[in-house]
Model the fold of this input.
Amino acid sequence: MFAFRALGRSARRWCVAVGIALVLPACAELPKDVQRPVSTSLASPAGTPLAALVQQRRTAAGARSESGFLLLDGPPAAYGSRLALAEGAQKTLDLQYYAIHADASTDRLLQAVRDAAQRGVRVRILLDDFHSTGRNALVMRLAFVPSIEMRMFNPLAGARGSSLGRLFNALDDASRIQQRMHNKLFIADNVLGVTGGRNLGDAYFGNGQAGNFVDLDVLAAGPVVQDLSRSFDAYWNNERAYPVQSLVTREELEAIRNETRAEPKTQENDSEPRPPNAAPAIERRARAWDQKPMDLTSATFVWAPAAVLVDKPAKIPADVPRGSPGNEKAPGLVVTQQGRRPSSAATRGGSSLTAAADTAADGETVVEGLLQLIGQAKSELLIISPYFVPGQDMKQAFAAALARGVRIRVLTNSLASNDAPVAHVGYARHREELLSMGVGLYEMRSEQAGLGSAFGSAGGSEPGESRSMLHSKALVMDGRLLVVGSMNLDLRSQLQNTEIALLIRSDELCRVASGQIEIAMRDGAWHVERGDNGLVWRAPQNSGLKDSATEPDASVGLRLLLKLFGPFAPDRLL
Done:
């Protein structure tokens, strides 16, 4: 079985691939004896314009903590911050992503990255290899630009013309291919960086043709960024990272480019049909190029103690003999806490963060670290997880917290708003049990109308033009600790994908995030409850909608398909 979630929108093609694989053997292999020159992040960010800017902002704020944070709660801020980092970098740019789509928004952003390389900035791009086929493979052409290095993490063997061919070749290595690098980082000069749940592409920046993701990032400043960079270096120098040149030639990419140019322009990135009133490609390109970089000189950072949680690359098995250089013996969790350093040990709130970091360190992965934190909650947990598939240990953590009097509310996708409906199966089968335990469940509406300002608008489309899909990953504990990262609360993030998260000890940021989550739950989500005859979906306030006794906004066909398919889909693969 292969990445059910990633292939949710292409289930029929996946079935065809499996059928072919039953009668034909896989053949392609990954290259051997690949050269991976070791490189690391900028040793000292001091002396760069961005470093001076961060120091100026900290001094102006009179902050005691050394690291600052700004929530990026909408497409303009998310896009503008990345543009500003690309345009402001003078020494290094490091990008690490699960997916980079070849579309209008990314073209504009990556042009700024190319411009940085042209002025002498060293650029490193680390991309998970699962989605780099067809048009999206064209992103790999960056590897042939001077001053840009690009590596693909945990690659699939085979030609990149189509996803089916690569999946067919990977059927004899299903366990490794199921595990993906899900981390997201965009770091400039080792002093400013963005992390969170957002990939790079139109749908993540409010410019999608069929739907847009509601997402959340954090712009981090100061020493905590050096911890993010160390995480990047660990993945970049790992034997699972293959230089693009070892996997594909410039000529092969040019052939793909010529093929995609000849394709009909109605479908640019995937198999989703374009809505009749969606903006054409040329209009979406113009909209992306109209975006302006964020004015970092006026950015209002919240200065606070923080810790970085990141899975080790070895969570994904390498296709090399055990014991090779850099091949760790076992997966594990790396926890780096700024407040523990002598320079900031006296920071206000640092001791409580130290306790949280120590607690998280008891887990072996990012998600397990968060479950350890949940075990310390005293009053309230607010959770956003677009793909919410709780395993037994997660339910036990919830049950223990509820028994202590902790109020738990979870915002996740509804069936209609889920971009991978098959993932909804793993959530739905646990829904009644969670409600019986006392967990509050909220499912986001798929229509943009009614979302209001919850984590920013989903994008630049008019209401009804495209659907909204929740993609934010966040946790607020006791109004004091905010966690933002790439992880979902599901078994895939817990056991298979690598993830990264920021723990920030800040009452102020918790107030902001909690307020936005409350708005999303009240105005943009269905409240699921147990009724006399089964589940009831209570309509959002002031929406004008009626309560529903079935999955709202989802077709009968989709509900039936998932009901039939559900019993055969293991939670750990959803």
